[in-house]
Write a structure and sequence with these properties.
The protein is of the alpha/beta class. The protein has helices at about 10-30, 45-55, 105-115, 175-185; strands at about 5-10, 35-45, 60-70, 80-85, 95-105, 125, 125-130, 145-150, 170-175. Helix 1 packs across helix 2 (about 45-55). The longest helix has 18 residues, at about 10-30. The protein binds inosinic acid and magnesium ion. Magnesium ion (MG) binds near residues 42, 101 and 108.
């Protein structure tokens, strides 16, 4: 499968350094949070990031899961996002982190954030590994970004193409002929 990769965009070691420093920032920010924090994990792409992040945060952390998907209804004119599966605990007066893999158009984050906000948390932070340059509209909620990248389709470190490549330890771009072959099949 390594032969499917055209180019590495962010190498494994750079990811590890950056994720550890994001974890340090959050640990310091929530140092006075007696009850600790609750993390809303947007499945499935953020699982690898979540695992690395929380292991660098020596504090009280509780984890909740949210499955969101981009949803284009082919028979109507209203494409959008939907939440497929949500397990959120009581968030009232809690410090909450919404963890996602990548900020593309910002649609997923917007819908999950509004759900989390409806639980009346004390604060909401939104760390993402990647942000695609210039795609999200200016009114997209502020996020903590690991790396800004060009607007191209990437895989690895949790991100998938057709459900594959999430286990790759780096972030990379697929060879175009492979992409096309996959699409045709
Ligand atoms: P958004 O709602 O447009 O911000 O898209 C966010 C979701 O789309 C991410 O959580 C990913 O699951 C998926 N996504 C967006 N861009 C990519 C990519 O380049 N590779 C893999 N998945 C992506
Ligand atoms: Mg996702």
């Amino acid at each position: 499968m390594r032969n499917d990769i055209a180019r590495v965009v962010v190498p494994e070691r750079e990811i590890a350094t950056r994720v550890a420093s994001m974890a340090d920032e959050f640990t310091a920010a929530y140092a006075d949070s007696g009850e600790g924090i609750k993390i809303a994990t947007i499945l499935t792409g953020s699982l690898v990031f979540l695992a690395d992040l929380i292991r660098c945060m020596p504090m009280r952390i509780r984890i909740a899961l949210v499955a969101a998907s981009r949803y284009t209804r082919k028979t109507t004119e209203s494409p959008g996002d939907r939440l497929e599966y949500v397990i959120l605990p009581d968030l009232c007066n809690c410090d909450v982190l919404i963890v996602d893999d990548i900020l593309d158009t910002g649609g997923t984050l917007r819908i999950v954030r509004s759900l989390v906000r409806s639980g009346k948390p004390r604060s909401v932070g939104t760390p993402v590994v990647l942000r695609k340059h210039g795609v999200a509209p200016p009114d997209t909620p502020v996020v903590s970004v690991g790396f800004d990248i060009e607007d191209e389709f990437v895989i690895g470190y949790g991100l998938a193409y057709d459900g594959l490549y999430r286990n790759f330890p780096y972030i990379g771009v697929l060879k175009s002929e492979f992409h096309e072959r996959e699409r045709a099949s």
